[in-house]
Amino acid sequence: MTFPSSFEKVMARLKEGALPKAREALIRNFLVVLLKSIFLEKVDYKKRNKCQQVLMCGRQMHPQIWEKTVVDVFGKQLERATSDEMLLVAVSGFNNGCEMLWTALSEPQKERLLNFVKNSPSSVFDELYTLNDNIFDIARNARYSAATFKEITDNLWFDFPPILQERMTMFVRHAPNYASANKYFQCIASNATDFSQITVTKLIVAASMNSQAYDAGGFATVLQKFRAANHIGADFVDKCLASNGLEQLIHSDDDL
């Protein structure tokens, strides 16, 4: 039997079983198991998604028992997450409706999880993009703003976050030589279509302040990528170059 494909269908399936009329102790134990599976056990995405849907259905069926169980046990459960791996599991659970559980935590408990994200090790860096934006966006951006070049390039980005675009701009600004600048530009070129006019402007300004950057061959390649992007365009790029004293590059890549 396949798992239902929507919240409404999950609810309908559960109503056909014993859950609606189960004793309070059984409902409570069921909810505790679901919370543990979502926030403390390393399971695949599909299983976690199923548990999250069932947990939210449990809230709708038995709101008072659900609320009391969450208040009584959820914060204590998360205190058991001590390793980096377990903390990643914990912060990854606040999706698919489960973000409402955030309010059940005390301020120190919230701060512990936010600090984990802000100071997370390289071993979990590639998972940060999956976290709930409303809860963890500021903490995640703080971590991204301190990312190393290796952390950035060790991952394939479906969407290259603006904060990492600005991080790459900082690397370009301080590139010590042509070789380093070209490494940075290679990464930028691979993600050029994700750059906005705002971050393109910041990159050109940064490059204009470092001869090791604006004289590097990779810069011309990046400029060509920006010119070819419909949401940026050649006119915008050339105006930015002219505004920052880089008129010599306006046509330097025509033969690429």
Mean pLDDT: 92
Oligomer: single chain
What best-fitting shape do the alpha-carbon axes yield? elongated
* Derived structural class: mainly alpha
Helix content: 55-70%
How would you characterize the largest beta sheet? none
Q: Span from first to last CA? A: 57 Å
Whole-number radius of gyration? 24 Å
**Low-pLDDT stretches:** none
Number of H- or I-type helical stretches: 14
Please indicate the percent range of residues in DSSP E strands (runs of 2 or more). Answer: under 5%
Order of helices and strands: HHHHHHHHHHHHHH
Number of strands: 0
Note down, in words, how this protein is organized:
It is a single chain. By secondary structure, the chain is mostly helical. The chain has a domain at 149-256. It has 14 helices and no strands. Helix 9 runs parallel beside helix 11 (197-208) and helix 10 (178-190) runs parallel beside helix 13. It is elongated.
Task: Draw up the topology in text.
Layout: H1 7-15, H2 24-39, H3 45-61, H4 63-78, H5 84-92, H6 107-118, H7 133-144, H8 149-153, H9 162-173, H10 178-190, H11 197-208, H12 211-214, H13 217-228, H14 234-243
Helix pairs in contact: 1-3, 2-3, 2-4, 3-4, 6-7, 9-10, 9-11, 10-13, 11-14, 13-14
Protein name: ERAP1-like C-terminal domain-containing protein
